[in-house]
Amino acid sequence: MRKYHALPVTLLAALALTACQDGTGTNDEGAARPEPASATVTAAHPAEDGDSGKATGGTTGTQGTSGATGTQPTEGDKTAKGDNSTKGTTATRVSCNGSNTTVTAQPVRRPLNHMLLTVKNTGSKMCDLTYYPVLRFDEMQWVPRPIKDSKPQAVTTLAPGESGYAGVSLSAADGSGEWGTTGHKLTVGFQGRTPNSDGGPSALPALPAKGVYYDSTLTVTYWLRDMDDALTY
Asked: Rounded distance, CA 129 to CA 223, Å?
């Protein structure tokens, strides 16, 4: 049975999200750095200049219908990770969210300190996984930034029964991350068709009983069609 609820309004307000264009992407506005657990960090868009997405800042950027920064693809766009342009027009598709999908979160052996998010379309219509997941462990007050290099060139669209993926880099393998802690509850938020908009109910995938360790280097990929691609970063 899937679990979902609306992403807390207080969290969205704390992020100070800013859409810089219409529904086609956002411009770069720099990245914020997470503070100790007692502080609230204001989110900004990830930096473009040489940023690998592994910085310690928590931000919400935007994808090209899955993205941190850059331009959201049009329906005719092709992508190296798969062309979804044949899956119907935007008007015939809905947004993927916690009401029409099941979401699982599974730590993996490789890469080290990574977790895989899997979203399966359980509805009767094709749905779009736009931009990237907005993650929140427990009462975390900053948003993990997206990995810019993982941005696809087209929307990740799921037909009924199909699955999409996002990889989560939980902590620095060399121990350089700060404020490491163990999360026991995960909320996965979905973005709508415009950057940082509400995509519908969030999901609450179960975590291992022992929880999941993460630190200030926590990052997430954009929504992708291929599991191996999601675990590349």
From this structure: 6
- Determine the residue type at 219: T
CB 164 within 8 A of CB 152: no
Work out the angle at residue 23's Cα, subtended by the Cα atoms of residues 18 and 28, and round it to the nearest 5 degrees: 45
Q: pLDDT (tens digit, 9 = 90+) per residue, 54-95? A: 333 333 333 433 333 333 333 333 333 444 444 566 678 999
Q: Would you say residue 17 has pLDDT above 80?
A: no
- Tell me which of 63 and 41 has the higher pLDDT: 63
Q: What angle do CA 71, 188, 159 make, to 5 degrees?
A: 65
Where do we find the tokens 């044949």? 86
Which residues have C-beta within 8 Å of that of residue 171, sequence separation ≥ 6? 113, 177, 180, 213, 214, 215, 217, 218
pTM exceeding the 0.85 threshold for the entire prediction:
no
Between strands 219-220 and 163-169, the pairing is antiparallel
* Cβ atoms < 10 Å from Cβ of 109: 6
Question: From CA 133, how far away is CA 68, in angstroms rounded?
Answer: 11
End-to-end CA gap in the chain: 30
Beta strand residue intervals within 72-133, DSSP E: 94-95, 101-108, 114-121, 127-129
Radius of gyration of the chain (CA): 16
**Tokens 């693809």, residue located:** 73
